## 1
Amino acid sequence: MSSAVESSAIPAREAARPPQLPSGEIPTLILEPTGRWPKIDLRELWAYRGLFFFLVWRDIKVRYAQTVLGAGWAVLQPLLTMVVFTVIFGMFAKIPSDGVPYPVFSLAGLVPWTYFAAALTGSSNSLVASSNLITKVYFPRLVIPYAPIIAGLVDFLIGLAILGAFMLYYGIAPAVSALWMLPVLVLAMMMTAGGVGSWMAALNIQYRDVKYVVPFVVQIWMYASPVVYPMSMVPKEYRAFYALNPMAGVIEGFRSVLLGAETVTWGHIGISLGVGAVLFVSGALYFRRMERVFADVA
Amino acid sequence: MSNIAVRVENLGKRYRIGAAAERHGSLREAIAHAVKSPFRNLRGLRDLSRFDGGERDDVVWALRDVSFEVKHGEATAIVGRNGAGKSTLLKILSRITEPSAGRAMVHGRVGSLLEVGTGFHPELTGRENVFLNGSILGMDRAYIEQRFDEIVEFSGVGKYVDTPVKRYSSGMYLRLAFAVAAHLEPEILVVDEVLAVGDAEFQKKCLGKMGEVAREGRTVLFVSHNMGAVTRLCTQGILLDRGTVKMQGRSSDIVSQYLSMGSEEGSQFVAADPARAPGNDRFRLRAVRLLDHEGDAMSTFDIRYPITAEIEYELLRPIRNLRVGFRLLSGDGTVVFSTTDMDEGKSHDSHRTVGTYVSRCTIPGGFLNQGRYSLSLGIDVPMVESVVFIDNIVSFFVEPTGGVVGAIPDNRLGVVCPLLPWTVESVAVEGGEARRREVAL
């Protein structure tokens, strides 16, 4: 009989004020067509840091879900690539490596590059992959392309540890300046990945061509960066131009502070940093501009 | 501070639907088309988000000049047919998309529930998804932690909370997703047709929770096709029709107006072209209609009133012993009953001459339970031939507008909900001799 007649006799819970609402002012929101260049609301982004954290955490958590090796892949990927590069570029093509053993030379390039390639790809596809979210619930959309940028750091740190092991094996000590230069370089690398990633993500939601463009861009970009060869192979007069590629400065900087390879011109790293910052800011602005149509074209 | 929670002024939303692809007849045309298509595609995709070309023919206004107000603490239903703009309105109010014209003022935090389980990741466990989904819905971590046990208990997933949700049954998945959503407590709650999914048990739970939220005095905007839920949960209503507000007022008035808006596709069958109507050289089916107690064609019926099925047909030649009937099927395909116009022993005018006829059958009120039903039409000459048989020719809904027993909201299980006579008698009463007493219910 219990299930035959069921009135909605659930007692109303005593109106406990939900703790997610800070007491006090009730916000008033005006919803109307926005202009062409909406502002980047940093306060709002900060308010949504919890969500950002969870998206990052989700990305990390599911990355190697249902794999046998799990995080072992973060170790194997750069390691196997290093072996291939060492055989092909180091032994067959005999590409010079600034006096550093080629394996550790290429690994020092591969660790930031692998991060960059994965973060950029993840970021570019993030928005399309989250179309179920953006059509169902509001939050500042910028957290989506930035989450893979942070999540990729886990693999990057594992890569750095492997590099450290190789440096130990070859008896290479990093420069003291690594202490402050490394964070700067990592930041430049993240800004570049996040900047290009947010450009690509915003374009991707409307033009799905981006999905096919990104792998291609990543491949070309690798050869345009000193991953398998040293920057010293680039003719001197072109180096300032070459440094417009932010990853060129980042990778060369990595080698310089970690392996004490060729001393790079810090001016070139400065150019790379500047370009990285421009990409980051312009990416965020473009993303914000396109944001209002995401839910409509997704 | 005003008493208004939501004020909408001349709100409009337009979409580009994109022109239909053209067809080409020859290989040459097809190649020319393929060469030119990247440019056309670029224009087409770019135009999806541009409107500067003036009033173009592929622009549709999902909402136009919509204005209304919702007071704090009011539960308001938004009803309308598919495509009326209900979901678009909710999307604007929950900031998922922005309006193309007009403005909306929202006073208070909005929690929107356009779907349950938004952002659930199949690889993550129930526990992890509660946190992820909660944060997507706008809860902070401390709040989720505080309510975690309550959420799990409400969902009933119990010991499976640390299992990846991809191993859940769809029912468990849904219950967990709803449990998280049910603990969202903003000042303004926006709910789309989330109750349409899941089994009866789940829907009951959803409705109970919604009622609780509404009674707590929070502002609720509720979209549903379930008119019973609408009248039960909401005091106010807004009726949308093709993107404009057709009526605003008390929810009971809105519901009756909506129900009288008449037939949606599927509730009527009309053979527009007699030459292609079902039948043969002697018989032609003209129409099948469902009428309410006032004789109006409807797709949705009040549970309390009778429903009349009307079958109109034409005889091109006389037929002897023609039998018109139908099977009534419930939403899951169970046959509720079969009936024909020969049932009562009398073959109504068993020899029918050339002409147009209407056979009617009335299903009494308070008999069919709430839900979706369909009608399979069968017309034959018994033992001789089957003339027409059409499965699910029309379908309709029965809505619980108040409950069979009267004012008490009531959600009975069963395909039918007849009111049957009961007696109660006391056979032995403590401290006295048994007195026979009958109570008629």
Note: Chain B has three domains: 4-8+64-259, 18-57, 269-399.
## 2
Amino acid sequence: MQSEYPDQMQLPGLPISRRELLRLSGTGLPMLALSALEAAEIPSKAADPSQTSPLAPRKPHFAAKAKHVVHLFMNGGPSQVDTFDPKPMLRKYHGKPLPAANLRTERKTGAAMGSPFEFRKYGQSGLEISDLFSETARWHADKLCVIRSMKADVPNHEPSLMLMNCGDSRLPRPSFGSWVTYGLGSENQNLPGFVAMCPGGYPIVATQNWRSSFLPGAYQGTYLNTQNSQVDKLVDNIRNSQMGLDAQRKQLDLLNRFNRRHQAQRLGEPLLEARIQAHELAFRMQMEAADVFDLSRESNWTRELYGDTVIGRQLLLTRRMIEKGVRFVQVWSGAGQPWDNHDNLEKTHRSLADQWDKPIAAFLLDLEQRGLLGETLVLWGGEFGRTPVAELPALNGRDHNHYGFSVWLAGGGVKGGQAYGSTDEFGFAAQDKPVHVHDLHATMLHLLGLDHEKLTYRYAGRDFRLTDVHGNVIHELIA
Amino acid sequence: MLFLMSITSVSADDTFFETRIRPVLVERCLECHGPDKPKSGLGLHSRDAALKGGEMGLAIVPGKIEESLLINAIEHRDDLKMPPRGPKLDASTINDFKTWIQTGAAYPDSPISATGGSLPDRVKSHWAFQALRAVSKDFSPGVNPVDYWIDRALFKNKMKPAPMADRRTLLRRASHDLTGLPPEPAEMQSFLTDNRPTEMAFAKQVDRLLASSRFGERWARHWLDLARYSDAKGYVFFEEKDFPWSFTYRDYCIKAFNSDKAYNQFILEQIAADRLGNTISSENLAALGFITLGGRYMNNPHDIIDDRIDVVTRPLIGLTVACARCHDHKYDPISSQDYYALYSIFANSIEPPLPPPLEQVSKTKAKTDAENKIREDYLKLKAFVDGKYDQLIETARRRSGDYLFAAETARKAPKTEDFMLIADGGDLNPTMIVRWQAFIERSRKEKNPAMSAWNRMADTPAEKFLAEIQNTIANETNLLLKSKLQAKPPANLQELANIYTSALLQAHGVWREYSQRALSAGMPAPKAHPDRSIDSLRQVLDGPSSPTRVARNPQGDLTLLPDRASQAQLQALIGALEKSRRAKDAAIRPQMLADREMMESHRVFIRGNPQNPGIEAPRRFLQLFETIQPDAAYPADSSGRLELARSITSPANPLTARVYVNRVWGYLFGVGLVSTPGDFGARGNTPDHPELLDHLARDFMNHDWSTKRLIRKIMTSRAYMRSSYDFNSNAIDPENKLLSHQNSKRLDFESMRDSLLAVSGLLDTKMGGPATGETIDFKFRRRGIYGRIDRLNLPEQLRTFDFPDPNTAAVERSTTTTPAQSLFLLNHPLVQAAAEGLVNRVIGNTNKPDQLQNVISEMAKLTWQRELDGQELDEIKRFVGFESNSGNPDSMRKKLISIAQMLLISNEFHFID
């Protein structure tokens, strides 16, 4: 399947004599063209693909600690007081009102609700984590940088998803992954630079979560429905249903010959070269994508480590993509908002955490063993957390809480084994060292070598940023 | 290339001030330390004032934090604690102030929004704000003004103009530019064999293409980019996802371009068709979709209005007015007051749930029944919503003290953003609390005497309440309130709230009786109660700035109904109406906008925060254009959209025609004379041929704002007809600003898709009507403009091909080249269908092509509009394997399809010279 033009960077690919060029020109250009061509040098604005491909890798503003981002999105909002923010006081008050009035959230809330899960200390750092994530904790506590003082703006899903993903609650803005791909390009031109995986459908507000908005479409997230495991169902247009790769290679070679002839008459036009290159990339992508999404190429041992579940497969795919240089991978918990446990929290949180805990432990271990953890920034979290008090009328679920919640970072230059900031004694609101979502974004961009105030795009009269006019880099989070 | 990173060009210190310091000054300091009688003589509204200091000494000494009293005060180091009310500034803000002073206290002098201020002259002198140059030359009939200026510039720069393109290139170019489709072989043949000189023959072709219905489809699609057109609303809660009649707007646009509707009329109708009365036919009400087909922004009214302000400014006058939502525009003379003047116009416009039918409804029984059912469901919805509003207002009055107390509590709590709450039936309405909060803020600024006791006591610490209440009672000037306070002095704020409830209700009762008596005596409704104590109190409950003056949304909204039970009822009622509106026999209606029954005045929101109202923002057009404001103030009984539309389309408006002409130029040359079509402000680029731009704009207005005439003028110029080959060394003019040659263009998504279908004979040219399929679906064969657009769920493929995000007006499309595009071309069923279609079109369904060479030539003629040369034919023959003709018709057919696809995805097909 060797292309007849092994080195597509060279121009022109088709050996063509000056005489023939002139002869060809005769079909498209009038006589005067000939004399002009004889007299003048043929302009050659030879296409440099790094200038023409929007996904070509670009240098960061300063030395980066991380090269890739993996965002594990617990959509719906996991409860901080049941996972990474232990609050023994809640058990004392269980069933009783808190001493101070409950902060206003979306719904009516009542008495305190102690966590049904036990917290234990893990690792050298003694980081306290609940049983829900005991595997992750046992293996990786000293790598986790838990931010316990996160805050967002409102306790409603839609705006909070938008804030976490696009840096603005309501207005149409590009997603974090789009900004990063815009800023850094991607290291593998045969795969999409930014991938969003969600099994069985979309999270709420759908594709807006990974939109490129006013950034060019090339930076949008490519959605994979990971309910499927066959490659042609995972990636759009990845396979031709009518013809095999051999036949397609021959077709592409014929196309190249015609495109080169066409180009030879129009040497000043870099887009023509870009298009020719893009076809070649696409052709290779078909093979590389088939390869990267084929989990049977992994050892049994590795597949067992991740577990043969949707989440396990998603994380194994993620590692394979990161290994191949994909810039940004977002992994969702499931369609809709699985973590949104207004009732039945104990049961549902346990079953969701069971889906994630072992695969996360495996994923971090795998990254570490392959030497990828240092360059991969992993973020775990939801769009907000949950109230320490129960939602009325029952005492078995929690409302949304944007006043205080936890996320964690690992790898990618992060200072692990620490809990940064804190909420009040009941876990309601961020108290010590609050970290707004904008600060999280600014810090993550910093780890990627990008200055969040300089990563801008001119649109509608303004230089837009992911962090708008906000955001502070939190240096204590950085190793 | 659009993906290069840009770094802001303002100095870092200025940026720091604008992002970190100015917002804090505006929000926390200027209310007292503004230009108007500043407290303690200290003004912080300008650098000069701030450096001058106040009665207590120097507030700011650049470079010296310790000598700057301001730092002392915001750090609460001693008795002087600033700001006196609300929370202390947080540590990072205080640090920002230190940094600011340490680095020299930069303070750029553009005016601060809340306080108004005049426009700096340097900005007024910006080229785009100057009147159009007078037509300086009379052109004899043979001279195209386009060439006059372009050729002059080329000559001056010693540039060689490219020769005229050959006829094939010309017709391909013109067909794509005007119709978004390639020429049919017969059309090409007729042009190639036309014996007249090329210029004349080409002009005929341009006329033919302009007269084609395909023209409107192509040019309306350009317009829909600006109109951020979508058939779906975006994320919604209780309504149906789709606009019921979005297609009426799309079809209106197609018709407008096909009938060459005067551009000024086109704009008038799109902004204010409902106000044009009998001067237009009622089908033109569909034009209002321009305003109404935007996103719903989770029902946030401020964002919806922001979107509407943006869509009437950036695309139409090339100014980024929406930048002034939070503070004055940083670069252009557009103030927050300008923004909120427009805000007020759109805040006084609503979408009626039941617009009038677009056409006369025929009187068949089925149609009449359908209309009756719609009316019935509409009235049910209306009764419910009205009842809920009445109840909300009644409760807001009856429980005014409770609201006051709740609002005060919210005021003192740390600020949080407005969010959706789910409440119980009997709760105070959260949005009404916010309204009371805004009312309290206003009453403080305006020193409303009826609220002075409240405001004073609200600022008094609880332990000093009993001592202070005596002074308050002694100073109270409102006699009704005073008597109530004296009768039973309140012991805390809650008790004071109860007294307010009683006084407000009593005054309101007296007032109602008084006005009723006047009315029943046949006298005009009184404007005020003669007793000032009564009048100022009753104003709180029903005056123009009362929190109970709720602007009604006829379809109701979530904030009106925070409890689940009412929301469910509302949802059911809306659902019923939506269902009957969608019924088979229901009439088609416009996506209409109308004025409210009662106009509300609005204020500047300081920093864009609706809870922080500033000065009044009377409705008007941008102050920049004083001369094209209507003579009188905007009418009190309409929103002012018509006046706004007239200002935009005024021949004296220096922007509207320039912006449009530039846009048309851009569609024909690939880039506008001003290369930033959405920004004619200080940060936009200046025109490459300013005289030409002005001439075209003036000429356009002088000739009935005719788009077709303008296009014809440009397309019949030598400049348009030139070859796209650059015959100069491109070092002289690499961006081709001087237009020594045409620019080559890549087909955009719709042109590509439609052309694929057209050449393969699969295109269905049926016009108009509801969207019945997805553009990306290979089974959907109508032109792309008729495909359904869902802004929440736009297929990735569209964005992949640079189709713009339909959430905001797109003034230009980016052009990217990615492997994802190639995957589409190589593998998508649509391309495969087109390839098969092309083969079928040429050979019919037979599997026995007699003359293979003819088949291939014919396919090339359809796709590339030219004959293949011998070498090309040889290439293809080699690909097919002519010599070893296996005679297997199936494999032959496969090869032909492969060749057809190769032709269809070739650069020659996708690029227009």
Note: Chain B touches chain A through 108 residues (CB under 8 Å).
